[in-house]
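So, does this match?
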Amino acid sequence: MMDDFMIRAALAGIGVAFAAAPLGCFVVWRRMAYFGDATAHAAILGVALSLAFSMSIFVGTVVVALLMALVVSILSGRGYAMDTLLGVLAHSAIAFGLVAVSFLSGVRIDLMAYLFGDILAVSQDDLAVIWGGAVLVVALIGWRWSALLTSTLNEDLAYACGINPKREQLALTFALAITVAVAIKVVGVLLIAAMLIIPAAAARPLSRTPEGMALMAGLIGVVSAIIGLRAAYVFDTPAGPSIVCIAALTFLVTSVFKAVRPQR
């Protein structure tokens, strides 16, 4: 059964949806969309360095994503506007990554697969990495859930409860780096942020509690992955973008539902 490439692709999409759902909720609540985009862009540089030093692409992308977050944390308090800083770092990282890839001799690289994903080429080893990363992210978010919610709600309240918001930010950043690393094979660098943000945003009008929103985002992500893969198979369209399109249509539907629903 696992030799069927469509089943492996579906399992990979479900794994990424599980990892992205709770994390995407915090990205939406904290207004970190551009931060997630910058981290995803840095993944290309991580891919180039991984290939150059013959190491795991998963490890390379995690390391570069964490370094990106560290640089942002250091520079954000030194007179730089956050949106400007993230814009500079995001586009610089992807530019340096693409240039670095061009210098790799003797290595064949399908840049389109890294930019937009190649979910249909997922192997059993890739599945193990994706699901291992997804379980780690879900476990980390579940472990720190209460502290993350408190520090997201109000940093002063977090300090009063004995919670260090900077530590929670680091945990969130680590989870984001892992999610980017496991999702790059599925939806690619340019669409990772979409899988983080769109299912969470679509779940918001349908949810009354933070936990409910995380579960609903996971469900929307899973359904988008399955329907998007089916649409890609039927219409011969790119799989990664097709998944994101289904998620975007779901967001449109829930937004209309929110607009027409009577206010209580």
The radius of gyration is 18 Å.
